[in-house]
Design goal:
Blueprint: H1 8-11, H2 24-47, H3 58-61, E1 65-72, E2 79-86, E3 103-107, H4 114-128, H5 136-152, E4 157-162, H6 164-177, E5 184-188, H7 203-225, H8 236-240, E6 246-249, H9 258-271, H10 275-281, H11 286-294, E7 310-315, H12 322-326, E8 338-343
Parallel strand pairs: 3-4, 4-5, 5-6, 6-7
Antiparallel strand pairs: 1-2, 2-3, 7-8
Helix pairs in contact: 5-6, 7-10, 7-11, 9-10
């Protein structure tokens, strides 16, 4: 039954009975659990589960968080996010709190239920069309993030999200990073919209396709934007490189697996001496550049999924199917086979 998949006592990370905030596995698991809490807040609303019937509270209370605000969509009144405050009891003073957040703002992804699916799906389309920033749900989310940062400072706020929610958290993080505020961010299965090159099994073919795409993209950048040079202090992509969100992807999830190739290809291009080409290509989308040529416009919309820097964690644990590979539940398991790399734009 569906409620069994929402019960913390059955599926939650009960092994985290002592939190070590310096442990990256603990931080990842807790951030994923708080995102799960936002999913179940909406499911509680849909199923009219209140008080002792509600299944959402254990997903944050187990880790000594309290819910201080639900984020509600103005279009259909669904809960799409939550703001949590970390409030550990004095009896847990021995736990490491050096890297703990004061507040976490978490966003859920699409829920496949009638009460919310229509609105969620319309937002998925906005992500595909690179128009998430124009939606009222994102405006509500962005205002909540800005207000929290203004009240407590960027070092005290974490962002977290899964799938569509990861796209929202990423866009909010990128937007606020451009103002000089860099938030810790945990982005689970964030969508990367491009041809599924990463799913090709032959390494040389993948590299050849990516190399050709980089050359074409760089050429279109020069054709549409000219050869004008900007200093690093004026380059928006370089300014954004100071923000290093944590990305969590599964190679068998075609919605996010392209992040693996995106960052690894950039590193390889630097190694073989084509770094200048890739520095142009990595901050532009080939599709958007083609559209700017068709429209005869020098401006292309900044693609959401393009990032200068990231701490990329890849789950190499075998997945049974796409649902498992894309699910939030994988990220709090204690037995994961993970590959982690830091990528910094330079």
């Amino acid at each position: 039954m569906s409620f069994e998949r929402e019960d913390f006592g059955l599926l939650g990370p009960l092994h985290l009975n002592s939190i070590d905030w310096e442990n990256s596995n603990h931080r990842r698991s807790i951030a994923a659990s708080l995102v799960q809490g936002t999913y179940i807040l909406e499911r509680d609303r849909q199923e009219k589960r209140q008080g002792s019937q509600a299944l959402a509270p254990p997903w944050w209370e187990f880790f000594h968080f309290k819910l201080i605000r639900q984020l509600v969509d103005d279009a259909d009144s669904c809960v799409f996010g939550a703001i949590y405050e970390y409030a550990p009891p004095s009896s847990h003073c021995n736990d490491s709190i050096d890297q703990s957040p004061r507040y976490v703002i978490a966003f859920r992804g699409t829920i496949n239920k009638p009460d919310s699916f229509s609105r969620d799906f319309s937002l998925d389309i906005h992500v595909i069309r690179n128009g998430l920033h124009q939606t009222s749900r994102f405006e509500i989310a962005m205002k909540a993030v800005q207000n929290m940062v203004a009240m407590v400072g960027d070092s005290n706020v974490w962002l977290a999200g899964h799938s569509l929610g990861a796209a929202m958290a990423m866009l909010a993080g990128k937007t606020i990073a451009k103002t000089g505020n860099f938030l810790e961010a945990f982005l689970f299965n964030p969508p990367f919209l491009s041809a599924p090159v990463e799913r090709i099994n032959y390494g040389n073919v993948k590299h050849g396709l990516r190399f050709a795409c980089s050359v074409i993209t760089a050429g279109l950048v020069l054709a549409t934007k000219g050869n004008s040079q900007t200093s690093q202090s004026e380059d928006p992509f370089f300014i954004l490189s100071a923000w290093t969100p944590c990305l969590f992807v599964n190679p068998t999830d075609h919605l996010c697996s392209e992040y693996i190739g995106y960052f690894e290809h950039r590193k390889k291009m630097e190694e073989i001496g084509y770094g200048a080409i890739e520095r142009l290509a990595t901050q532009n989308s080939l599709g958007d550049l083609f559209m700017s040529v068709v429209r005869r416009s020098a401006e292309a919309t900044e693609p959401l999924h393009l990032l200068p820097s990231a701490y990329l964690t890849v789950n190499l644990t075998p997945s049974q199917d796409f649902k498992q590979a894309h699910g939030i539940q994988q990220w709090w398991r204690p037995d994961l086979h993970l590959k982690c790399n830091l990528y910094k734009y330079k």
